[in-house]
Design a protein that fits this description.
There is one protein chain. The protein is mainly alpha-helical and 93 residues long. It has 5 helices and no strands. The longest helix is centred in the middle third of the chain and has 18 residues. It is globular. The N and C termini lie far apart (43 Å).
């Protein structure tokens, strides 16, 4: 039997994101997982709050330029402060 990835009763989704962030921050090579997760969050917020699809030009207009720069760029290592700023910009959509 494989060990549990989270403590009993813990939020498995949160545990998954935490492992992904830990891996990104400590990994030897840039991983697109964090950038892709940020994009999924931004898409979900645009759809839920503004009924906008990702490919709608009006959707991109709602995204902060710093967030767009991260989402449009090739995968690179983001530090904790950059991830926090991206999450802040997503919250403001």
């Amino acid at each position: 039997m494989e060990p549990a990835v989270a403590e009993p009763g813990a939020d498995t989704r949160l545990s998954t994101y935490r492992r992904m962030l830990d891996s990104h921050l400590q990994g030897a090579a840039p991983d697109p997982a964090v950038r892709d997760a940020l994009a999924r969050l931004a898409r979900a917020v645009l759809a839920r709050r503004h009924d906008l699809a990702w490919d709608d030009p009006a959707a991109r207009e709602r995204l902060h330029p710093d967030l767009l720069a991260v989402l449009d760029a090739a995968p690179r290592r983001l530090d904790g402060a950059e991830i926090d700023r991206c999450l802040h910009h997503i919250e403001e959509i």
